[in-house]
Amino acid sequence: MERFAEHIAHVDMDAFFVEVERRRDPALRGVPVAVGGTGTRGVVASASYEARRHGVHSAMPMAHARRQCPALRVVPPDPRAYGAASEAVFEIIRSFTPRVEPLSVDEAFLDIGGLRLHHDSPRGFADALRAAIRGGTGLPSSVGIATVKLLAKMASGDAKPDGVLVVPAGTERAYLAPKPVRALWGVGEATHARLEQLGVATIGDLASIPEATLCRRLGPSLGSHLAALSRAVDPRPVEGGDVVKSISVEQTYERDLEGRAAMERELLRMADRLAARLRRAGFAARGVTLKVRFADFSTITRSHTGRAPLDTAHDLYAAALALLDRAAVGERPVRLLGLGGDNLDDAAAPRQLDLASGGWDELEGAVEEVRLRFGDRAVARARLVEPPATPPEPGSGTPDTGRQAP
Amino acid sequence: MLSRATRAIGTRSPLPILQGVLIEVTGKTMRVTGTDLEVTIRTDLEVEVLEEGTTVIPARLASEAVRKLPPGAVVLQAADGEVEITGGGPQFRFRELPADDFPKIAEPDLTGAVEVDGNAFASALSQVAVAASNDDARPILTGVFFESEGGSLRMVATDSYRLAVRDLPSMEAELSGLVPVRALRELKRTVGASTLRVAIGAREATFASDRGTLTARLIEGTFPNYRQLIPESYPNRVTLDRDALLDAVDRASLVAEDHIPVRLMLQEGGVELSVIRQDVGGETEHVPADYAGQEMTIAFNSRYLNDGLSVVDGDEVVLDLMDPLKPGVLRGTGSDDFLYLLMPVRL
Predict the structure, then answer these.
(1) For A314-345, what is each residue's pLDDT tens digit?
(2) In chain B, whose CA is at the least distance from the CA of A315?
(3) Which end of chain B is more exposed for a tag (fewer CB within 10 A), N or C?
(4) Are B164 and B157 in contact (CB under 8 A)?
């Protein structure tokens, strides 16, 4: 299938922290706002566009910002709220493509080359993504799209606020030419000074200098790097930064588990949690790992990789029980249990069906829908209705990338 | 004979002594015993006995050595902790293993044994063994389940993706138990013969012939209730030439390898068989068939389909289907003694 020529998108949230604050306090709309430390040594973490017009920018000491803009509304930062908003934004981004390379809480590169089937143009994609982010979170974002990362990022900057800029293939050098060389990655104070000595002010100036000359003046590494960038050559691909390799849940018990019945009940609970996480992430696991930590802290793991991908609690529980048998835990007290899935397949990929699991798929799919609408406790297995040994900790699951799976 | 007993020996036995075969010479007979504690194979041979005795020798080395000797009589002689194997000139010497360490294994128990036609038994076994699992994570599925159905013998195996059921109406036998497929796969090459005696006790199954005995510890646990998995009726039935479909699946497998499903589009007049592999390409072809039912596309793992077609009876096969997410059942036309049920791949 033909790909978009302009296949790299850079998504950047507009004044992210400020917009999150505005979402819960509409009084902050339309006025200059800065999020940041309110103390004497505080600095600006994020400034609204109204504040930026008064010269307020991020990393500026807050006292200085207040002098620049006496009307400035200063809001102390709430990292938890920004984290939650960031997760919501990334979840929406990942619903468009799994090829996402996050750069920070509020920006990411996306490879959209393969999305031609779904969107008629790169701009069409950008409009749909921004509308989805706005619709899902109420937050504004900007998108730049180009053939290479360097230009995509510059384009999203030029698109701000709340806009889209596509740099069409073939126009890259024309787009770059008038920009100051400082806009290039790798051009700091010192390099800038040396380029000025060469009479270089814009990227166009830089592109007109032969690479050999740049290498002689700046050293071979920096010289060829800048020569390439100035000619819009940037071969770096979008790194699917956090390809999820496994998803697992685990639980430490306040009182050690003793006996097979207690272990089975807890494993059923974990299978249920793991299945929900896998389904939400759109995965099915061919590999299942059971982790058992005993009261003396000795730990064993048992894994099995099968042919059929699993994503129902029924199947995961059966796999966990088989592993428990192999682990020969006996009557030893257990302080921690973990259950993980790996060798993850796309849940929508063709799937070998299993004689034993007929029907569970649909049942659990229906349960999942109820939970998404009414919360995780809305539906539970009869066996699990009695209270757990210790209440489950929210978010104790850990994809091995350290990032919450989408 | 040595090599037959050697087939019982596991490749990764935890006990060094189990890498050996026990040789017992008494009266006019030499008995060779190999075991991995789960499966034990004993073979008896009438020999010219010069001296009675017992020894344990390294199984693989000794059986290879005997194989490589020139044709003719072989002499086995134990002395001073070594066993000498000679014949036609060459002379091998192997260090003995301590005979006292060799596990004490009870005599084969043939109580209640039934005599069966060894060839028919072996061919029935090979039909169901393809469906058994080799995955030790679920031991229950690594066996062939024997039971009595209407007074005659039935064999069943499933790896949870397919299920094979074979009835042997000619064998009236009340046998019941779950026998490891690993042991059964060795049956033909070890004690296979035209007449076989079979006994399944509470803990062990024993197979005996004039070539020796094979004893296998039964797998504990309850075999899945396979009867409920077999649909009562099927709205869609396709009848086709077995070899034509087998060849088509074989061609498709070239592209599908083991992980891409083969799609069967069923329509009046035949089956459009196709396989599509994103990064490689694909294959399609038409297989003529009689089809009574609604048009539909169902997909199967090519190996599972191939396995079933390879063992089903007859030149013409019937594939009964309900819908693309329910099992398909493969049978030989006009044959009710064997069925092979396989789960589809959901596309």
Answers:
(1) 889 999 998 998 888 888 899 999 999 998 88
(2) B160
(3) C
(4) yes
Strand partners, A299: A293
Cα-Cα-Cα-Cα dihedral sign, residues B111, B114, B117, B123: negative
CB of A5 within 8 Å of a chain B CB? The answer is no
Decide if B343 and A355 are in contact by the 8 Å CB cutoff: yes
Task: Tell me the pLDDT tens digit for each residue of B54-98.
Answer: 899 888 888 888 888 888 888 888 888 888 888 888 899 999 988
CATH number of B2-101: 3.10.150.10
Which amino acid does the sequence have at A270? M
| Nearest-angstrom CA–CA distance, B324 and B301 | 13
The pTM (predicted TM-score) of the whole model is 0.60
Backbone angles phi, psi at A311, to 5 degrees: -150, 15
Per the CB < 8 Å rule, is B299 touching A304?
A: no
For residue B161, the distance in angstroms to the closest alpha carbon of chain A comes to 5
Chain B residues with CB-CB distance to A323 below 8 A: 137
- C-beta separation of A373 from A379 below 8 A: no
ipTM, two decimals, is: 0.80
Lowest-pLDDT range, A25-29, A142-146, A401-405?
Answer: A401-405
> In the A/B pair of chains, how many CB contacts fall below 8 A?
46
Which fold is adopted by the domain A173-230?
Answer: DNA polymerase; domain 1 (1.10.150)
Write the pLDDT tens digit of every residue in B235-263: 899 999 999 999 999 999 888 876 789 99
Residues from chain B contacting residue A354 (CB–CB below 8 Å): 160-161, 343
- Does domain B114-228 correspond to CATH entry 3.20.20.150? no
Identify from B136, B141, B161 which residue to disrupt to test chain A contact, counting A C-beta atoms within 10 A and taking the largest count: B161
> Whole-angstrom Cα distance, residue A389 to residue A265?
10
**Contacting residues for A164 by C-beta, under 8 A, at least 6 apart:** A123, A126, A127, A130, A142, A143, A144, A145
